[in-house]
Design brief:
The structure is a single chain. This protein is of the alpha+beta class. The protein folds into two domains: 102 residues, Topoisomerase I, Chain A, domain 4 (Orthogonal Bundle), CATH 1.10.132.20; 68 residues, Gyrase A, domain 2 (2-Layer Sandwich). The protein contains five helices and six strands; from the N terminus they run αββαββαββαα. Strands 3-4-6-5 form a four-stranded antiparallel β-sheet. A hairpin with a 4-residue loop joins strand 5 and strand 6. The longest helix has 38 residues. It is elongated, with a radius of gyration of 22 Å. The protein starts with a helix and ends with a helix.
């Protein structure tokens, strides 16, 4: 594989990895600590992720328990969870915060699937942008005399195959996550 195509493959793989990480935050019917992954809490004036200021556990397959190391941060954690607008309501007893993850309604499942499909489309757009930039670079290299016409065509075909494979991976992840959302 051409050195430039290796670099493009890294970018394509990075787009898939970002997409996988992003869809982990989508809520399914069961609690997942990844729901809280992107929530930032103001901790002594510094934005910190929830898992940096508290321990997180799942209890009874329906409840996320957040045990802050410093009790003073409880209101900040509650505020951050509410501001994240992920459909979860924190309840605190002064020592820990409990979040009961209710079963998802059919309407909420459909909303999650719609959001999933938008995320997938955004990931595919990122992949197509990587392909476009790669093609532009290959054409520039041809016009600069670095590569010949037949080599350009071969590299463009290879780049298209890489793009198709990456889009297929995104589609597979989307299908898997949609199944998870609709059945749990």
């Amino acid at each position: 594989m051409d050195a430039d195509l290796k670099e493009l493959q890294k970018k394509l793989d990075g787009a898939v990895d970002f997409f996988k990480k992003e869809i982990q935050t989508l809520r399914t019917g069961r609690p997942s600590l990844s729901l809280l992954e992107n929530i930032k809490v103001s901790y002594y004036g510094n934005p910190s992720s929830v898992d940096k200021v508290a321990s997180l556990n799942i209890m009874d397959n329906r409840i996320i328990v957040i045990s802050p190391w410093d009790q003073k941060v409880i209101p900040e954690i509650e505020k951050a969870i509410m501001a994240a607008n992920i459909g979860l309501t924190p309840q605190n007893d002064g020592k820990v915060i409990r979040i009961t993850v209710p079963p998802m309604t059919e309407e909420r499942r459909k909303q999650m699937v719609k959001l999933l499909k938008k995320m997938a489309e955004d990931a595919k757009i990122a992949v197509r942008n990587i392909r476009r930039d790669g093609n532009d670079d290959l054409k520039k290299r041809k016009s600069d005399g670095v590569i010949q016409e037949d080599r350009l065509k071969k590299l463009q075909d290879e780049l298209q195959k890489m793009t198709d494979q990456t889009v297929h991976k995104i589609d597979e992840q989307t299908q898997k996550k949609e199944q998870e959302i609709m059945t749990t």
